[in-house]
């Protein structure tokens, strides 16, 4: 039996309309083929890395986390990335920083008027690079594959992706060669393949890039490899010859690879359709945008060995690279941000002081014995599990809302916590109501607390921008929401790629369910025909179900970090002005045990706030949700 190899360049469905297999499908197929390691390197992102990590851990396959980075041509001028920009306010904002965000202005209470949407800054390709004059670039953007060898490498990878994404419009990314060299520590670079300067660049572009090439070699040292790829295309023969000549000139070892776009050849038609969707063309007009053959599958060991029979050393080098990649996503250690503390106080001491002060306020000076016992038990468990910072963060956000006259209310199982009640996060007395604290936080469940904070909907943006100001864009980012293909959207997009009339596709979409399977009978009824067209559309649309289409924003989830969040996961621009999001969704965070803060909008709170205002104006009575008389029958009936 042929010795296994390591596929170093696999793109999944999370390259967004390029890879035609889900991450878990690639890992499962690698395990079935007897491959011990897989290198996942999606385009400018790690969106699917947690899913690959979970499946790889389950099956005992080594995951090599990486990305395919888009690099600007040598000499191109890039807009400076905002990553790591200093914040004058320090880690947390003060009351003086609580004014409205510059992107919005307040009209009457409860209404927010946004500034006009600004057009995303385009990335210039001539002029000055970081304030220094540069020659005009030769050639267009190129690419390079990098994998994290250790934890420093992962940090540098996520920083690089963040820098490229933050400077570019949503959906795109662009890095400079100098940025890549500056963040080379802990990364292994595989230079080659379609779109790379070393393989595809003409002689003029190659010679003009001599300075960056030398800088790249110096930065990576023996962690820079030439990546030779083969897919049995005639054009690859001179390309590989050019790559080998340039690799010899630079003294780079060569590693063998194919660009894996799907786990089985049967997905080649879907990959063609994804290419058409991405470029907005049909199969009939796609031309050279489509791959020339179906040899981008995850190859069996014997097939890969046969493809590279003339260079077994390049195959063996794939194992060398895998052995150097020791990083695993399980090594990520997350620390919640430290709040501002009184001089000499610890987080637990400060939380305890705030809780007891709040308890005296809630109960009119003297804390009942049963409440005191409950608070003591809760505070002990919170300290034991080291969750004090999380409660202090929620307290700080609620205090901002109080200062800004914004009504907010903790919801869900947080109402079972006497600590939350005394901190003012919730308005229900759990001791009086006999609620079970363990439903909210338990040592045995080993799950982090989850406090959802409802905020009156027309003023929530003020709270979101306050969090950005208080923690900074490096330490705070919203959780993403993946928009996936469902039957209606899959049939529409696949049908357009096949060149079918949009009126017929619209009829078909209306007959399909928003969830479940793609029903061929509904498609046949809408198209007025049967046979091959209906079967092909139904097959491809069914394969496309659950594939990610694009990124959106979670309704209100934030990730906050003591260390910069972009050292854990890349951050990118959202389509909404003033918002930045991470590349993982709530399920990914849960898989890795990361905390999120949920700031949710609730219209009923806005109406309740108006009621309190009217009662105060007409009756002279000051009420909050916690002080509504519990025996008022008219209120609660």
Tag the structure with descriptive keywords:
single chain, 637 residues, alpha/beta, six-stranded mixed β-sheet, five-stranded mixed β-sheet, 24 helices, 17 strands
Report Rg: 28 Å
Number of helical runs?
24
- Report how far the terminal alpha carbons are from each other: 76 Å
Question: Structural class, please?
Answer: alpha/beta
Residue share in β-strands: 5-15%
Let me know the largest β-sheet. 6 strands, mixed
What assembly state would you assign to the polypeptide chains in this entry?
A: single chain
What is the molecular shape? globular
Record the strand order, biggest sheet: 1-2-7-8-9-10
Percent helix: 25-40%
Extract low-pLDDT stretches: 87-91, 93-135
In short:
This protein has 637 residues and is of the alpha/beta class. The protein is 40% helix and 15% strand. The strands form five sheets. A six-stranded mixed sheet has the order 1-2-7-8-9-10. A five-stranded mixed sheet has the order 11-12-17-14-13.
């Amino acid at each position: 039996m042929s010795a296994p190899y390591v596929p170093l360049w696999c793109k999944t469905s999370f390259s967004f309309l390029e890879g035609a297999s889900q991450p878990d499908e690639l890992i499962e197929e690698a395990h079935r083929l007897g491959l011990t390691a897989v290198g996942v390197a999606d385009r400018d992102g790690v969106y699917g890395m947690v899913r690959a990590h979970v499946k790889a851990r389950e099956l005992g396959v080594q995951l090599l986390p990486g990305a395919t980075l888009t690099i600007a041509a040598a000499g191109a001028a890039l807009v400076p990335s905002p990553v790591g920009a200093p914040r004058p306010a320090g880690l947390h904002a003060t009351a003086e920083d609580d004014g409205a965000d510059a992107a919005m202005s307040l009209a009457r209470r409860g209404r927010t008027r946004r500034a006009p949407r600004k057009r995303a800054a385009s990335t210039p390709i001539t002029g000055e690079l970081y304030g220094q004059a540069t020659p005009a670039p030769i050639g267009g953007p190129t690419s390079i594959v990098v994998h994290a060898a250790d934890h420093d490498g992962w940090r540098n990878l996520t920083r690089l992706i963040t820098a490229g994404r933050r400077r570019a419009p949503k959906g795109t990314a662009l890095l400079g060669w100098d940025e890549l060299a500056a963040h080379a520590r802990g990364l292994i670079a595989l230079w080659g393949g379609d779109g790379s300067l070393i393989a595809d660049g003409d002689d003029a572009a190659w010679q003009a890039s001599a300075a960056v090439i030398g800088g790249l070699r110096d930065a990576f040292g023996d962690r820079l490899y030439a990546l030779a790829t083969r897919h049995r295309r005639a054009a690859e023969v001179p390309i590989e010859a050019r790559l080998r000549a340039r690799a010899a000139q630079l003294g780079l070892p060569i590693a063998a690879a194919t660009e894996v776009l799907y786990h089985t050849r049967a997905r080649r038609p879907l990959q063609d359709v994804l290419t058409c969707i991405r470029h907005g063309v049909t199969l009939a007009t796609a031309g050279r945008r489509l791959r020339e053959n179906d040899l981008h599958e995850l190859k069996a060991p014997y097939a890969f060995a046969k493809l590279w029979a003339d260079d077994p050393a390049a195959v063996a080098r794939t194992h060398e690279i895998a052995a150097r990649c020791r990083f695993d996503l399980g090594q990520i250690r997350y620390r919640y941000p430290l709040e501002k503390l009184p001089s000499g106080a610890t987080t637990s001491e400060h939380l305890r002081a705030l809780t007891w002060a709040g308890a005296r306020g809630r109960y009119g000076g003297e804390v009942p014995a049963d409440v005191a016992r409950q608070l003591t038990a809760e505070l002990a468990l919170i300290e034991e599990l080291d969750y004090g910072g999380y409660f202090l963060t929620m307290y700080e956000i609620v205090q901002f809302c109080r200062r800004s006259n914004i009504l907010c209310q903790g919801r869900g199982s947080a109402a079972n916590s006497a600590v939350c009640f005394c901190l003012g996060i919730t308005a229900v007395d759990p001791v009086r109501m006999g609620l079970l604290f363990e439903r909210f936080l338990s040592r045995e469940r080993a799950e982090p607390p989850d406090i959802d904070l409802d905020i009156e909907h027309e003023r929530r943006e003020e709270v979101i921008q306050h969090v950005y100001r208080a923690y900074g864009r490096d330490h705070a980012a919203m959780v993403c929401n993946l928009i996936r293909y469902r039957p209606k959207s899959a049939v529409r997009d696949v049908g357009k790629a096949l060149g079918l009339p949009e009126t017929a596709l619209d009829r078909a979409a209306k007959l399909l369910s928003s969830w479940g399977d793609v029903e061929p009978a509904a498609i046949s009824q809408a198209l007025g025909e049967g046979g091959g067209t209906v079967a092909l559309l139904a097959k491809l649309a069914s394969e496309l179900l659950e594939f990610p289409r694009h990124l959106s924003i979670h309704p209100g989830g934030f990730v906050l970090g003591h260390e910069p969040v972009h050292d854990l996961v890349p951050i990118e621009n959202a389509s909404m002005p003033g918002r930045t999001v991470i590349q993982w969704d709530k399920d990914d965070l849960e898989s890795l045990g990361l905390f999120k803060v949920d700031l949710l909008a609730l219209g009923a709170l806005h109406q309740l706030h108006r009621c309190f205002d009217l009662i105060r104006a007409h009756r002279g009575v000051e009420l909050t949700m916690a002080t509504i008389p519990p025996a008022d029958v008219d209120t609660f009936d």
